[in-house]
Design goal:
- The complex is a heterodimer of chains A (333) and B (327).
- By secondary structure, chain A is an alpha/beta fold.
- Chain A is built from 13 helices and 14 strands.
- Chain A has a seven-stranded mixed sheet, sandwiched between helices. In chain A, strands 9-11-10-13-14 form a five-stranded mixed sheet, with helices on both faces. Chain A has a two-stranded antiparallel sheet with strand order 1-8.
- In chain A, α1 packs parallel to α8, α3 runs parallel beside α5 and α10 crosses α11.
- About 2% of the residues of chain A have low confidence.
- Chain B is α/β, with parallel strands linked by helices and 327 residues long.
- The N and C termini of chain B lie far apart (52 Å).
- Classes of the chains: A alpha/beta (333), B alpha/beta (327).
- At the A-B interface, α3, α5 and α6 of A face α5, α6 and α13 of B.
């Protein structure tokens, strides 16, 4: 076990997987210079056959990833900012997510798409989206939202070795966050949530970038006598419903914290799962702490207004536990 | 280089197979026997056949909405194709894809595609794979004049030329973008778009299978030898509508004159090759008729197979969404 930064853990996963399997290739815009740091050193190690800069043409890149994966390569496509997934969305939605079904299972697509998501850095509306909801709705792709360096490395390895398309979403601006990373080769399975903090009074399901503030909120709650259990699903497709439901059976209360816009978010999906399968355990309404249905504003103070924050999470938890009927969350509209 | 006599006879046979399969699908669509829409390839057979006769099973193709011809030309099984279109579990995609998605990986057919221009980037990716794996395979992207107006066409011309990928672009200029004449929505020459990227181009009579064969042979050799992509524009004509049953919703509206269709019928690629084979004494008319009769039997068998096969397994939907994982 050693302390490593998030971006360093991702870089190690790429390096080790490219070392392990010569069929792994990586391409994308500006990957040779590694502007996020996650592809640093790969060009020197593996050469331009296996890692290369591409023109700026996301639709073609996503389609090429499909074509190359269908014909013998293991592809890692780096799409830089998650908003650029939208410019490449036709082949993602129409080919990547559907080709296996449409061909009756003939085609396998071992491919991983990497993209950085989320706000908080004054990157304005087109470099800050949290796109997992739209990807979750495609049906044919896995959606990974690692919150820690250890999970980032382990999930990325599982994705690269896998037989299906996976979106590996990196929390932008969290590259410097550090955490313990196991030594040697290991993988983290899809569909297994992590109980990031055990507790008995309220379950906080935190998605990706929200795990860290949720843990801080849990510390605040602890000082006021409330024990929050923080669940990090780690992957949204597949989703470990069981761990979430089991936690709510214990606590009777649930808050889901998600940096996506509220409407049809991972939070609203998980809330629906709880309404359906955890209803009898619930002592209070399921609450969502999300971004309102607006685009991300530029000015830092305006950004803070819409991003979920620790105090908001803690406040809602207090109100749930103390049984206030009207829970005043952030005004969503 | 020209195809040998035996090769020319086999071009005739393969074009006839496509024609009779499509004619049968046309009749069965009209009779309401097919669950979904079909986009027929009648009139364009020379393009798929002339190109695919120069490919190996291990070479890759991506196809279009109008994909039955490419599937059969590349060696796809008529029975498995017919059963697929009928929505049967014996179909090549087990009834999960249908007419617009016929694919056979074992024959290098990455699939027909319901998205206009959807094949460009997949073929480019397959060509990238070929180049990295150094497996001496080429990829061919078949596409229509309609798809040539998609931006991804330009993107793929750029990247394939830049990286010298073993890729052949085959534009089937059939004069229509769905229900709109191409000339009314297209500026300049499509081949000029490829020329702008320094990709060698040939514009051929797409109803002359020998001309297509020759152009394809040199384009494929060029690409396979590591020189980068090549481009063919085959001028042809879509005899049928965009899809069968379109009259139902066109409600009397029209996008072309009957006279125009009749003019192009006179340039029928199969009749033209038959005439050539007879005039050069390669085969007698009766021998060509015998081939047609044999092919009609194959089509009949394919229909029987499709008709008597079990319907698709609905539960398979959940098995094939992911590899080794439930949705």
């Amino acid at each position: 076990m050693a302390r490593k930064r998030y971006i360093q853990a991702i870089n190690e996963a790429l390096l080790e997987e490219m070392e392990r399997d010569p069929k792994v290739i990586l391409f994308g815009e500006d990957v040779e210079l590694a502007i996020f740091g996650d592809t640093r050193g790969l060009l020197e190690r593996f050469g331009r056959d296996r890692i290369r800069n591409t023109p700026i043409c996301e639709a073609t890149l996503a389609g090429m990833a499909v074509g190359a994966a269908a014909t013998g390569c293991r592809v890692v496509l780096h799409m830089m900012f998650s908003n650029f997934i939208y410019t490449g969305f036709d082949p993602i939605a129409n080919q990547m997510a559907k080709l296996r079904l449409m061909t009756g299972g003939q085609i396998e697509l071992p491919l991983t798409v990497i993209a950085g998501y989320g706000g908080g850095r004054a990157t304005a509306a087109q470099h800050s989206d949290t796109p997992h909801p739209v990807l979750m709705n495609l049906g044919g792709v896995n959606v990974l939202v690692p919150a820690t360096p250890a999970d980032a490395k382990g999930l990325l390895k599982t994705a690269i070795r896998g037989r299906n398309p996976s979106f590996f979403l990196e929390a932008s601006g969290r590259g410097g966050d550090s955490g313990d990373v196991p030594d040697g080769d290991y993988t983290v399975p899809f569909g297994k949530a992590n109980i990031a903090r055990a507790g008995t009074d309220v379950t906080v399901v935190a998605i990706g970038s929200m795990v860290k503030p949720a843990l801080s909120a849990a510390e605040r709650l602890h000082s006021s006598g409330i024990e929050a259990e923080v669940i990090d699903p780690r992957t949204l497709v597949p989703l470990d419903e069981e761990t979430i439901i089991r936690s709510v059976e214990k606590t009777g209360r649930a808050i889901i914290v998600d940096e996506a816009r509220d409407r049809c978010s991972a939070a609203s999906h998980i809330a629906a799962v709880l309404a359906d399968k955890g209803f009898s355990s619930l002592k209070a309404p399921v609450k969502r702490v999300t971004v309102p249905d607006v685009s991300m504003p530029y000015a830092p103070n305006a950004e803070s207004r819409v991003l979920p924050n620790e105090e908001e999470m803690a406040q809602i938890a207090r109100e749930l536990v103390h049984g206030h009927s009207a829970v005043a969350g952030k005004q969503l509209v | 280089m020209n195809p040998s006599n035996e090769q020319r006879v086999s071009l005739f046979e393969r074009m006839t197979l496509i024609r009779l399969m499509e004619e049968r699908l046309r009749a069965d669509a009209a009779a309401g026997k097919l669950p979904g829409a079909v986009h027929l390839y009648i009139g364009q057979e020379a393009v798929a056949v002339g190109v695919c006769a120069n490919l190996r099973d291990t070479d890759w193709i991506t196809s279009t909405h109008r994909g039955h011809g490419h599937f059969l030309a590349k060696g796809g099984d008529p029975k498995a194709m017919m059963a697929e279109i009928w929505g049967k579990r014996t179909g090549i995609c087990k009834g999960m894809g249908g007419s617009m998605h016929v694919a056979d990986l074992g024959k290098g057919i990455l699939g027909a595609n319901g998205i206009v221009g959807g094949g460009f980037a997949i073929a480019t990716g397959a060509a990238l794979s070929n180049s990295l794996l150094r497996n001496n395979r080429v990829a061919v992207a078949f596409f229509g004049d309609g798809a040539a107006n998609q931006g991804v066409f330009m993107e793929c011309l750029n990247v394939s030329s830049l990286w010298k990928l073993p890729l052949v672009f085959v534009c089937e200029y059939n004069h229509f973008c769905e229900f709109t004449p191409t000339a009314t929505v297209t500026s300049g020459d499509i081949a000029d778009r490829a020329r702008a990227f320094k990709i060698p181009c040939e514009v051929v009579d797409g109803n002359d299978v020998i001309a297509v064969w020759r152009a394809a042979r040199s384009a494929i050799e060029f690409a396979r030898s590591g020189n980068g992509p090549a481009f063919i524009e085959a001028r042809t004509y879509r005899i049928q509508g965009h899809l069968e049953s379109e009259d139902l919703f066109l409600a009397g509206g029209k996008y072309r004159e009957k006279q125009e269709v009749e003019e192009w019928r006179k340039l029928d690629p199969i009749a033209r090759l038959a005439e050539l084979l007879i005039s050069e004494n390669v085969r007698a008319a009766s021998q060509l008729d015998a081939i047609t009769t044999k092919v009609a039997g194959i089509v009949e068998d394919a229909v029987k197979f499709a008709d008597t096969s079990e319907p698709a397994d609905p539960e398979l939907t959940f098995d094939v969404m992911f590899a080794g994982q439930r949705p």
